[in-house]
TrEMBL record:
CC cofactor: Fe cation
InterPro entries: ARHD_Rieske_2Fe_2S, Rieske_2Fe-2S, Rieske_2Fe-2S_sf, Ring_hydroxy_dOase_asu_C_dom, Rng_hydr_dOase-A
Keyword Metal-binding tagged: yes
One family name in Pfam for this protein: Rieske
CDD domains on file: RHO_alpha_C_GbcA-like, Rieske_RO_Alpha_N
Rieske domain mapped to chain residues: 50-156
Gene Ontology MF: a single term: oxidoreductase activity, acting on paired donors, with incorporation or reduction of molecular oxygen
Keywords, ordered alphabetically: 2Fe-2S, Iron, Iron-sulfur, Metal-binding, NAD, Oxidoreductase
Protein name in the entry: (Fe-S)-binding protein
Coiled-coil intervals: none
Length: 421
């Protein structure tokens, strides 16, 4: 399906638009508004790259499963009877019905609600009623999808041959993640927010803090100097920058004492699996994303001896970012629904033994990022409205928006590769 759409794009204006993309400026309007571009994005990006879709904590026991829609594809992620992760296309091998329509469950076998064809957690067809004597169940197992857990974060790839560098990237980021023991964590909350904008606008918005004065709750602890250098910090942000330098020096000492990797690794557009990872300081108490910076949960993730750890920030192209603090973790997954509609799925993880109302107050835990997500959704909708105007033309990125440029360059590289195939 994906290859057909890419070949169709070869004879359309898409090829010219991709070829003439100007570095350092935003993309032209059709990238965000045209259905043909949206189809190409699914085929060239979401059907070929590793996509973050879930966390191990959503499928902790054999038989637990969750589903995710990636464009026209629907994927089941399930924990099999040997406690391994499996992923399958959510398409019955009988007449193509969706097998599972609920997002999550723990039913063991996967039963199609149409004609009751029943599959094991290994994808094998176990039961197909009223078939002839010579019917071979072994020919009708579920179609598999590549799946991998990286430090408790679950990724799938729809391509026959996934990007080869993912194993290397996983090996480099897992040492940052493993001390927090996300694989054994518990889901405290999960929200789905549909934003009225193209998926790329959602990603671009997350990659810069040029707009962060629109996030008063987040800026209680998140330094507004993100993306600035020593040379271009504006006068108004100098006090925050000085606080950051002091907190950063303290955090580096803590990380070194605890043996926690913290150095910035930034390879956002120089490889197929673009990524950025870094431990960084938080403001105020420096423990968590709360109004005073103190931990929202009394139980810390992992066996780390202090809650004052700042935050571990991870960004992966094309659709995810993550924040891990001493007491909880937040994951964000961006999933395209239409040219102008995008699902943002946010999941909060806590210690497996943490109890709501005893160890944490749920409203406090989710307050900062719930407010931030809603504010970002309004900004993305405004951007979509403006880009849809006939008078829109690409504008220049500020120096602090270099990660937006890296995302767009990574994206254009993927399209060019697909159009050459």
């Amino acid at each position: 399906m994906g290859d057909t759409k890419v070949k169709t794009a070869e004879t359309s204006p898409i090829r010219d638009l991709v070829a003439r993309r100007r570095a350092g400026r935003s993309l032209e309007g059709p990238f965000y508004t045209d259905r043909e571009f949206f189809a190409l994005d699914i085929a060239a990006v979401f059907a070929r790259q590793w996509i973050f879709v879930a966390v191990d904590a959503e499928v902790p026991e054999p038989g637990d499963h969750t589903t995710v829609d990636i464009g026209p594809y629907s994927v089941i992620v399930v924990r099999d009877d040997e406690e391994n992760l499996r992923a399958f296309h959510n398409v019955c091998r009988h007449r193509g019905s969706r097998i599972l329509t609920e997002g999550r469950g723990a039913s063991g076998n996967l039963v199609c609600g149409y004609h009751k064809w029943t599959y094991g957690t290994d994808g094998a067809l176990r039961y197909a009623p009223s078939q002839p004597a010579d019917f071979d169940r072994g020919c009708f197992g579920l179609k598999t999808v590549h799946v991998r857990s990286v430090g408790g974060l679950v990724f799938v790839c729809l391509a026959d041959e996934p990007p080869a560098d993912f194993a290397e990237v996983a090996a480099r980021i897992e040492p940052y993640l493993l001390p927090h023991r996300l694989r054994g964590a518990k889901v405290a909350a999960r929200t789905d927010l549909v934003e009225d904008g193209n998926w790329k606008l959602v990603m671009e918005n997350n990659r810069e803090c040029y707009h962060c004065d629109g996030h008063p709750e987040l800026l209680r602890t998140f330094f507004p100097t993100y993306g600035y250098t020593e040379e271009n910090v504006p006068t108004a942000l100098r006090p925050a920058h000085e606080r950051y330098l002091r907190a950063d020096a303290e955090m580096r000492g803590t990380y070194e004492r605890l043996g926690l990797p913290y150095a910035l690794i930034e390879e956002l557009d120089s490889r197929a699996t673009g990524f950025r990872i870094q431990r960084d300081a938080l403001d105020l108490a420096g423990e968590s994303f709360t109004t005073d910076g103190r931990a929202a949960c009394h139980r810390r993730l992992g066996d780390l001896p202090t809650p004052r750890l700042g935050h571990l920030a991870l960004h992966l192209q094309p659709n995810s970012w993550f924040h891990v603090v001493g007491d909880h973790a937040i994951t964000f997954s961006v999933l395209p629904l239409a040219p102008d509609r995008t699902l943002l799925r946010t999941t909060w993880l806590v210690h497996p033994d943490a109890t709501e109302d005893e160890d944490y107050d749920l409203a406090t835990l989710v307050k900062i990022w719930t407010a931030t997500n809603e504010q970002d959704a309004r900004l993305v909708a405004r951007a979509q409205q403006g880009i849809s105007s006939p008078v829109y033309e690409p504008g220049p990125y500020a120096p602090t928006e270099y990660q937006v440029e890296a995302f767009c360059n990574w994206y254009i590289t993927r399209l060019r590769e697909a159009l050459r195939r």
